[in-house]
Amino acid sequence: MATMILEIQARGLHHYQRLERFPVRVGRALDNDVILSDTSVSAHHLRLEQDEAGQVFIQNLSSENGTRLNGHSLGKEAALAPIPSQLLLGNRRLRLVSVETPVENTYMSRCSSVFAPLCKPRWALSLLLLTVVALLGNDYLAIALQKEPLFYVSGLLPSLLWLLFWALLVGGMTRLLTHRWDFAPALSVVSLFTLIPLILQEMGGWLDYFFTSDKPSTWLLVGGVDFLLLPVLLYTYLHWVLSQKRLPALGIALVLSALPLGIRAISLLDQVTLENEFSSEPYYNQTLSSLNIHANAALPLDEYVQKATAALPPQRSP
Amino acid sequence: MLLQRLLLLATLWVAAPVWAENTSSTIYSDVEQSVYQVRVINQQTGKKNAIGSAFVVMDANIIATNYHVVSTYINNPEGDFALDYLSTSGETGPLELLAVDVIHDLAVLKADKPLGKPLQIVPVPPKGARLYSLGNPMDKGFSIVEGTNNGVMKSSDDSNILFSGSLNPGMSGGPTLNDNKEVVGVNVATSGNGMSYLVPAEHLSTMLEHLQQADFKANDAVSQQITEQLRNHADKYAQRLQTMQWKIERTGSFMVPTDIEGTTRCWDNSEQPSPDDLMRSYFTQCGNESSIYLDEGLEVGTLSYEYIWFDADKLIPARFYRQYEIKNVSVSASEAGKQDVTNWNCFTDFTVVAEQEFKMTVCRRDYHHYAGLSDLLVTAALVGHPKQGMLFNLDMTGTTFASGMALLQRMLGDFKWQP
């Protein structure tokens, strides 16, 4: 008789039952060979037998929730189970496999090179520090009044609390998946989520001024921050930190970002609609930069007036 | 405030000299036949939409009033509205619009029968002369208001007569007479507290002469006439401003054009600095303080410009430029809406003025119903100075684009960098 393995699928870790002596009885009652403490499983649910040739036959004993073998529901008579086979006892999934079934490659941490900051505590703290400095700097630049240092600290505290709250939330969710506390990656990802918009905003301002156009910041902020940042960070976290496969990671990232992205899409649509409406306020590139680096050279006034006149022809009334 | 006003009334009542009342009463009875109420009637409801006063002038069936009294009729050419008159004795009849002078807010109408004795037009009398203004205030009945001529206004460029007497809505278009019962001006506006304005009647004479040459035939294309008047006025006005002497004054490190004697005036609107401020700004605001009425909520011919100088020695450049950028916003004072104008179209680029670099934006929007007429909004920000900034904003309504740009060039040409 060949030894079989019964895989009992449970969230987190599967259980494997070595089946050496047949018949094997499976059910919730304590006199079974394999005991499943699942309330959808009957007291005496299943009986497995093996013939001389090593073929496994399955007999359903449950009259309550029944058994499905590879998707087909079983009657009272024994049925031949190919190896491997999927079993569904009530709501509990099992798999019947042979001992020779190969296992997946050993998982190795992908948190290396570029993604190292995501996992190493020292890097995570540096990212957090950078974010705090960026937030403080942003506040400092935005206010042109004499203020005590404590003023800026008190302004920073709410952001810091939010950061920690989200880091705890992400860390807690990760705990459910990996069964261990891994706070550093969560902190890194949340810090990046705060830091990247600040950097892109600053960059957008420079580029806008450089090109005398609002397009760079619009693309960076609307495209980059509003629509890409959340799914990309989620994907990065799921794939490189939680080592989910690419496709599932992408799927989960999209599902989790669907709601915020949907809301942003609606407001973007509103904005586009409004832009086509009449407005008594002119719309032009208002950016100013202390560095004063711009692509267009300053024109002599005459040339400027010529260009403006050419660029602003009479508008036809509807 | 209320007490003050009551006192003023009481004093007038007690102190009003007897001879004046006599003059007023003789004037009133003499010209009563020549003063009418003009009404704009909505044909759908048969009710009056707007009222004003008018007077017979030059010919027995010609009467004059303000453009703004009949503007509803002119701005709704689909035939929803009609014009008619009401005499002091209660007679009514239809009126035909002959011509308008939108710049001076005048309109000339024709009745289908003689209305009364035409009043004579004379030049503006000396300052201090007694004047008598007639009309139908608030539709309460024909009245006469006595006041003093304070001459043609010097400080503002709409050249109206300042009349110290209480004009009220409904009296618009009525005549203001001298002691000899001759028309000096046409009632046009008030800013309350006995500050009223009259259109010099000479402008009406010019109009009437043209009409007489055309044998008092109605101008078929009144709206086109208005457009032409506005365009001509805008071009002439801009040309006049360019040739005028502008006061050159300091704003920060710049010398810039400010007041034009008798045309524009500047005010300081700087905010008082608070002890915590790390930067200071100096705000000079100038304007021509006059406008041309076109329709309800639509006035053109305004010119305003402002200079804001920023000193930010105590700020690092990045911090200063955040504030500077926030202030780099310009809006038009015009209340024109979707029905009047197109959307703004803007052009932004860098230019050099007085050897200094500016990031300048010119915005233009055009009027739907007045071809060739535009609003122009210009804003220029001094760049390249880490701790100093200047914003120059220019807002012109109802100008022609070319004239506006020429005026802009003229103004920028006066800029001098003097640190």
Characterization of this structure:
The complex is a heterodimer of chains A (318) and B (419). Chain A has 318 residues and is α+β, with helices and mostly antiparallel strands. Chain A has 2 domains: 4-98, Tumour Suppressor Smad4; 116-276, no CATH class. Chain A is 48% helix and 15% strand. Chain A contains 7 helices and 12 strands. In chain A, strands 2-1-11-10-7-8 form a 6-stranded antiparallel β-sheet, with no helix packed on it. Chain A has a 5-stranded mixed β-sheet with strand order 4-3-5-6-9, with no helix packed on it. In chain A, strand 5 (46-50) and strand 6 form a beta hairpin. In chain A, helix 2 (121-142) runs antiparallel to helix 3 (149-178) and helix 4 (183-211) runs antiparallel to helix 5. Chain B is elongated and about 75 Å long. With 419 residues, chain B is α+β, with helices and mostly antiparallel strands. Chain B has a 7-stranded antiparallel β-sheet with strand order 15-16-19-23-22-21-20, with helices on both faces. A 6-stranded antiparallel beta barrel of chain B has the order 1-2-3-6-5-4. A 6-stranded antiparallel β-barrel of chain B has the order 7-8-9-12-11-10. The longest helix of chain B has 22 residues, at 222-243. At the A-B interface, helix 2, strand 12 and helix 7 of A face helix 6, strand 20, strand 21, strand 22 and helix 7 of B. Chain A: It comes from Thiothrix fructosivorans. Chain A: The chain crosses the membrane at residues 123-143, 149-169, 181-199, 219-238, 250-269.
* Multimeric status of the protein: heterodimer
Rg for CA atoms of chain B: 25 Å
Largest sheet of chain A: 6 strands, antiparallel
Global shape of chain A: elongated
Level of helix content of chain A? 40-55%
Uncertain runs of chain A: none
**Domain module count of chain A:** 2
The percent of residues in helical segments of chain B reads 10-25%
Element order, helices and strands of chain A? EEEEEEEEEEEHHHHHHEH
Gap between N and C termini of chain B: 48 Å
